[in-house]
Amino acid sequence: LEMGSDKTSLSPKIPRRDSQHSRPAAGGSHPFPVGNSVGIPAFFPGRSPRGLPRSPWAVKKINAGCSQSQRSLFQRRLREEARTLRNLRHPNIVGYRALTKAPDGSLCLAMEFGGEKSLNDLIEERREQGLGMFPANTILHVALSMARGLQYLHTEQRLLHGDIKSPNVVVRGAFETVKICDVGVSLPLDENLTVSDPSLCYVGTEPWSPPEALEPGGVISDRADVFAFGLTLWEMLALNVPHL
């Protein structure tokens, strides 16, 4: 994956909201701007180094064409994502492998290679082929896999994913495994499963964002992920991006 790329993205052509539209989780403002230039064009699976987990890896790195200010921003995001990801251990969440530097000196986050395609890719392919909605048993399998991953994040890790959508779900083969990815904008939850820190802000992606994230003073909780989870399943029925 490359951050700051203008190549074709795995996700639909819908940017995350920028800092002017990001909703404070509890009355605060986002600590850094959220631009729409964080492109994720492709997976680059590679063999794992000797002595480390031997499954293929996916590597997210900063695009060499980024400006210095963008590079600093993306480096900070990569470090934050790595710090979150290294504490997660669940079969339905993409696993952490390493935070390192490429030969050109750019920071790289190496992760478990969760699958060949995103759920969004599969939805687009099905729509283009005129196949209609996914079979009920496939939707149920995706629903259970995502629900287990979200339950782990919310109840065991006290984390809000913050950007649940079909591009952030990776699928291996014919739905052999389904994993949630991209925890780079996750937020801590308190004992009431609410984002109570006023300095934090829900980012999300607008078509999947819950009403409370779009309204002034909205209280962000685990329900934000649940709302986006429901819309992701709706995508598998309608084969379209929600609210567009």
UniProtKB/TrEMBL annotation:
Keyword field: ATP-binding, Kinase, Nucleotide-binding, Transferase
Region (Disordered): 1-34
Organism whose genome encodes this protein: Melospiza melodia
Coiled-coil zones: none
Domain of life per record: Eukaryota
Gene: Pbk
Compositional bias segments (type: Polar residues): 1-11
Protein name according to UniProt: TOPK kinase
Domain Protein kinase: 32-244
Gene Ontology MF annotations: ATP binding; protein serine/threonine kinase activity
